[in-house]
Design a protein that fits this description.
Protein name: NTP pyrophosphohydrolase MazG putative catalytic core domain-containing protein
Distance between the termini: 24 Å
Order of helices and strands: HHHH
Number of domains: 1
Number of strands: 0
Largest sheet: none
Radius of gyration: 16 Å
InterPro entries: AF0060_NTP-PPase_MazG-like (IPR044548)
Number of helices: 4
């Protein structure tokens, strides 16, 4: 995954500043929320629409966008970004009793 994210970071997404990368996470999260609202029919004006697959796609975009932002914050150091995620994941697992 990190190799792919590094390619995106240095490829056509190069030149996007850190602030924009962080804000893009919120944008993608909003799209995931909208997809979920559609699937669950929580907007009475629109009713039920979309699929759980749509929600999964949007959640994947959140993960991808966050990973690219982590690489940017790490100054382009993909290994540093990966290590931070691994450390955080270990902390969360430990806290959850796993």
């Amino acid at each position: 995954m990190w190799d792919h994210l590094a390619r995106l970071h240095s490829g056509f997404l190069a030149g996007i500043d850190e602030q924009t990368r962080i804000m893009k996470i919120a944008e993608e999260f909003g799209e995931a929320v909208q997809a979920y609202i559609g699937v669950t029919g929580q907007n009475p004006r629109k009713g039920v629409h979309g699929t759980r697959d749509d929600v999964q796609k949007e959640l994947a975009d959140v993960i991808i966008t966050a990973g690219i932002a982590m690489i940017a914050i790490a100054g382009g150091d993909t290994e540093d970004a990966r290590a931070h995620l691994e450390k955080r994941l270990d902390t969360v697992i430990e806290r959850a009793g796993g």
